[in-house]
């Protein structure tokens, strides 16, 4: 998922080899201020009945407990990277609209079966345009129970398949 490339870049910036990410490497590569800002980040934002989260929700977990899991321990922060179990869940989230990214359209379709992940389905709205592979960034305007999708960019001629 790009972790090794990021680790290699941080190690190069710090000027030494690294076999794993730790607080010392983060501080050397990114600086104390950036690390402090990263550690202060929230897992989600809730506005009314709309929940904005990076990856999604586990429909079998208590949402508050699930979103409270620290992102600093990657294996605990499933809200940041969940795909299976979230994208293929069709029974909704109790009236909460879950707006998420993290899953480019090709990968989303493979899991959810949706031709267009930018449609509201099962209390879920995906906004990942796959910009690194497609050249397109996606956003939404949500207002008064309605939404519209906004896309910007110049599509790449031959987007690379995700391989995931």
Describe this structure in words.
- The chain contains seven helices and six strands.
- The strands form two sheets. It has a four-stranded mixed beta sheet, with no helix packed on it. Strands 5-6 form a two-stranded antiparallel ribbon.
- The protein folds into two domains: 40 residues, no CATH class; 124 residues, Purple Acid Phosphatase, chain A, domain 2 (4-Layer Sandwich), CATH 3.60.21.
- The longest helix is centred in the first third of the chain and has 12 residues.
- With 164 residues, it is an alpha/beta fold.
- The model has no long low-confidence stretch (mean pLDDT 87).
- A hairpin with a 2-residue loop joins strand 1 and strand 2.
- The radius of gyration is 17 Å and the shape is globular.
- The chain starts with a helix and ends in an 11-residue tail after the last strand.
- Helix 1 packs across helix 2 and helix 2 packs across helix 3.
In CATH terms, what is the architecture of the largest domain? 4-Layer Sandwich
- Strand arrangement, largest sheet? 1-2-3-4
CATH top level class name of the largest domain:
Alpha Beta
Mean pLDDT: 87
Spell out the CATH superfamily of the largest domain. Metallo-dependent phosphatases
- The value of Rg in angstroms is 17 Å
Please give the share of residues in helix: 25-40%
Uncertain segments = none
N/C terminus separation: 9 Å
Instruction: Report the biggest beta sheet as strand number plus sense, adding barrel if it closes.
Output: 4 strands, mixed
Global shape = globular
The string of secondary-structure elements, in order, is HHHEEHHEHEHEE
CATH level 3 topology of the largest domain: Purple Acid Phosphatase, chain A, domain 2
The structural class is alpha/beta
Total domains, how many? 2
Count every beta strand, where a strand is a DSSP E run of 2 or more residues.
Answer: 6
Residue fraction in strands = 15-25%
Helical segment tally? 7
